[in-house]
C-alpha cells in the first residue's frame, strides 16, 4: 500500500534550480560588494556548543529562551543549530588566534540558520543569512563602513523601499543603569502592561519597546530613552558614525526605540527594513558588540557587523526572473540507431568545454528541435545517414559535415 506523502518540515523549503540560480546572484553580489572592502569569506559549522549562544546571544533573549534547536549530540554534550552567526565568528576568531592578525579582521559568511519561530511570510525555521563582521577595531568608521556596505548590497539586489533605522545603546555600564531606570518606569505603570512584558520587567525590560500591546505602547511613549542618557564617549562615537553616513549620502532615521533581539550589542545598532515586506519587514541589521569576545573568554576586543536575511531580500526585490542559461549544442538524431553516435558526440563536446545536451526523452525529430529551442541551444546537430547536419538555431541555416567536425565548427562559432 502506498504510504502517505511526506512533506518538507514546517518552516523549511526546498530550493529548486531556479531558486538556486537566483541565490547565486545574491552570493555574487555579496562577493562583489564585500571583497573589495577587504572582507574575506569564513564559514563556521551549522551547530555549536549550546553554551556559545547562551553566553553570547544572552540567556534572557527570545532566541535563547524559546527558539533554539538544541539536542544532545549522543555523547552527553548539548549542541544547538546556530540561530545566528556573530557568536560563532567570535568563537572562531578566538580559536584561531586571529587577534594576532592585522586588525580589524574582516569576514563575511552566507549560510543556513535555525530558529524555532512560528512560520509566516518572511519568517522560517531554516533560513539563510549573509553576514559581515569586523572584529578588532572600535573606530566609528568601521560601523559606518559596514552600514554603507549593507546599503550597497541591498541596492545591488534591487531591494525596494528600504529604510535605515539607527540608534546607540551606549556602553554596557550605561545600559545597565538605564535598564534599572526603565524597569522602575515599567513597575510604576505595571497595571497597564501586557502580561508578557510584566513578567519580563527584570529579565529584559528593553523588549517592552517591541510590544504591540496598546497599553504597553502608551506606557513606552513616556519611558526614559537610552539615547538621551549616553555618556560623552558613547555620544561622540554615535555622532561620528552619523557624520560619516551623512558624508556618504546614506539616509537614515534615528530611532531611539530600536532594540535588537540579541544581548551582545553596545553602542551602534541599526536595521534596514523594507516597505515591500509585510509584518516581518527587517531585511538586515546589526551593530557593535564590543563585549562579546570577552564574554566568550577572550581579551576585551571590539567588534561590529550585520546580517541580512536572504529570503527577505529576495522577497523585497520582487523576484527578478532568472535568465535561462543558454547551451552551446543540442545533439538530436533522425533515427534510433544513431543514438550511440549522438551519445559520443555530446560527451566529446562537453570534454571540449562546450555545454551540450543529448536528446533523452525519445522525441520525434520535430520534437527534438523544439526541445533544442526551449533550451536556448545556439546550435543543434542532427545525426542522420548522411552525417551530421549542424543547424544554426538563430538563422535556421544548416550545413552537413562529418560528426567528428561538429565540435570544431561550434567552437569556431561562425555563421553557417
Ligand atoms: P538578526 O536581526 O536576528 O541579527 O537577523 C538578521 C536578519 O536575518 C534579519 O534582519 C532577517 O532578515 C533575517 N532573519 C532572522 N530571523 C529570520 C527567520 N526566522 N526567517 C527568515 N529570516 C530571518 C543577527 O542574526 C545578528 N547576528 C546580526 C549581526 C551580525 N549583528 C552583528 N553582527
Task: Please give a structural write-up.
There is one protein chain. With 416 residues, the protein is an alpha+beta fold. The chain is 35% helix and 22% strand. It contains 14 helices and 16 strands. It has helices spanning 17-34, 50-56, 62-66, 86-95, 140-156, 172-188, 195-199, 214-221, 232-248, 292-295, 310-317, 339-351, 365-374, 406-412; strands at residues 40-41, 47-49, 69-72, 78-81, 105-114, 126-135, 162-168, 253-254, 268-274, 282-288, 303-309, 327-333, 356-358, 377-384, 387-392, 398-401. The strands form three sheets. The protein has an eight-stranded mixed beta sheet with strand order 1-5-6-11-10-9-7-8. A five-stranded mixed beta sheet has the order 13-12-14-15-16, with helices on both faces. It has a three-stranded antiparallel beta sheet with strand order 2-4-3. A hairpin with a 5-residue loop joins strand 3 and strand 4. The longest helix is centred in the first third of the chain and has 18 residues, at 17-34. The chain is elongated and about 95 Å long. The protein starts with 16 loop residues before the first helix and ends with a helix. Histidyl-adenosine monophosphate is lined by residues 84-86, 115, 117, 123-124, 127, 129, 131, 133, 260-262, 282-287, 289, 305-309, 311-312.
Amino acid at each position: 500500500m502506498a504510504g502517505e506523502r511526506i512533506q518538507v518540515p514546517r518552516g523549511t523549503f526546498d530550493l529548486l534550480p531556479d531558486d538556486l540560480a537566483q541565490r547565486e546572484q545574491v552570493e555574487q553580489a555579496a562577493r562583489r560588494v564585500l571583497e573589495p572592502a577587504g572582507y574575506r569569506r569564513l564559514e563556521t559549522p551549522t551547530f555549536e556548543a549550546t553554551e556559545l549562544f547562551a553566553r553570547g546571544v544572552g540567556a534572557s533573549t527570545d532566541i535563547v529562551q524559546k527558539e533554539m534547536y538544541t539536542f544532545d549530540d549522543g555523547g552527553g554534550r548539548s549542541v544547538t543549530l546556530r540561530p545566528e552567526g556573530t557568536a560563532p565568528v567570535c568563537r572562531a576568531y578566538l580559536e584561531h588566534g586571529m587577534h594576532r592578525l592585522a586588525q580589524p579582521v574582516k569576514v563575511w559568511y552566507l549560510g543556513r540558520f535555525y530558529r524555532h519561530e512560528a512560520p509566516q511570510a518572511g519568517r522560517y525555521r531554516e533560513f539563510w543569512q549573509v553576514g559581515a563582521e569586523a572584529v578588532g577595531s572600535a573606530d566609528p568608521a568601521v560601523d559606518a563602513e559596514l552600514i554603507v556596505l549593507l546599503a550597497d548590497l541591498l541596492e545591488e539586489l534591487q531591494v525596494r523601499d528600504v529604510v535605515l533605522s539607527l540608534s546607540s545603546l551606549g556602553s554596557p555600564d550605561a545600559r545597565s543603569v538605564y535598564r534599572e531606570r526603565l524597569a522602575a518606569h515599567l513597575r510604576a505603570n505595571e497595571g497597564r502592561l501586557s502580561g508578557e512584558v510584566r513578567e519580563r520587567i527584570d529579565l529584559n525590560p528593553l523588549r517592552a519597546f517591541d510590544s504591540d500591546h496598546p497599553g504597553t505602547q502608551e506606557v513606552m511613549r513616556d519611558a526614559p530613552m537610552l539615547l538621551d542618557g549616553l555618556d560623552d564617549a558613547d555620544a561622540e562615537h554615535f555622532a561620528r558614525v552619523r557624520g560619516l553616513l551623512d558624508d556618504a549620502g546614506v539616509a537614515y532615521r534615528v530611532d531611539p526605540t530600536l532594540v535588537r533581539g540579541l544581548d551582545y550589542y553596545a553602542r551602534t545598532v541599526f536595521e534596514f527594513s523594507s516597505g515591500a515586506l509585510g509584518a516581518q519587514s527587517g531585511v538586515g541589521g546589526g551593530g557593535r558588540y564590543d563585549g562579546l569576545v570577552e564574554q566568550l573568554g577572550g581579551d576585551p576586543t571590539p567588534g561590529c557587523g550585520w546580517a541580512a536575511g536572504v529570503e527577505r531580500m529576495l522577497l523585497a526585490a520582487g523576484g527578478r526572473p532568472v535568465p535561462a542559461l543558454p547551451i552551446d549544442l543540442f545533439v538530436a538524431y533522425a533515427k534510433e540507431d544513431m543514438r550511440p553516435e549522438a551519445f559520443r558526440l555530446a560527451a566529446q563536446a562537453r570534454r571540449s568545454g562546450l555545454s551540450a545536451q543529448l536528446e533523452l526523452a525519445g522525441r520525434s525529430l520535430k520534437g527534438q528541435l523544439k526541445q533544442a529551442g526551449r533550451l536556448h541551444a545556439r546550435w543543434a546537430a542532427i545525426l542522420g545517414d548522411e552525417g551530421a547536419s549542424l543547424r544554426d538555431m538563430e538563422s535556421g541555416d544548416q550545413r552537413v559535415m562529418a560528426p567528428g567536425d561538429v565540435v570544431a565548427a561550434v567552437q569556431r562559432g561562425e555563421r553557417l
